Amino acid sequence: MAARRMLEGGLRVRRGRRHDLERLRDLIGGRAEPRAERFARRTLADLSQDVYVAEAPGGEIVGVVAVAYVRSLAGGRLAAVLDTARIAAGPRGALLDALLDVAEERARRRGCRQVRAWLGPADSMLRAALASRGWTLDESLTGALEPPG
User: What pTM value is reported for the model?
Assistant: First the structure.
C-alpha cells in the first residue's frame, strides 16, 4: 500500500505516528499517563501492529483503524485481529468502510486469511459496518483478569 491513500473531501489515510497520540486519545479515549503513553508509542512502533489514521485537510485526526497480528498455532499462520476502528462524529461519508478496506488489505498482504474483531458493547456502528461487509458472528468468550498483587 502506498504511504498515503486519498479519500473524498481531501481526507487522507496514512500510517499512525507518535505525534498523533494525543489526537488519537481524543478519538478513542484513554488516559494521558506516562505508562499509557509509553504503551501507545510502542504499539505504533511494533511490527506486529498496523495503525492507520484518517486525517482531514487541516490536520485533524477523524478516524483510526488498528490491526494486530498474532501467530496462530491452530491456523498455522498469522491471524489478524481488528483491535479498533473509530471515526469522529460528523458527516464522514464512507470513512469507516475505507478504514476497514485498509485493515483487510493489510491483513491480506501479511498472509492472513481471516480477520477477527474485538468489539465492545458501544461498538454498534462498527458492528453494523462489519455485518454489511459480510462478516459473520463467531463465538468468542472474554474473561476479565485482575491485576497481580
Answer: 0.84
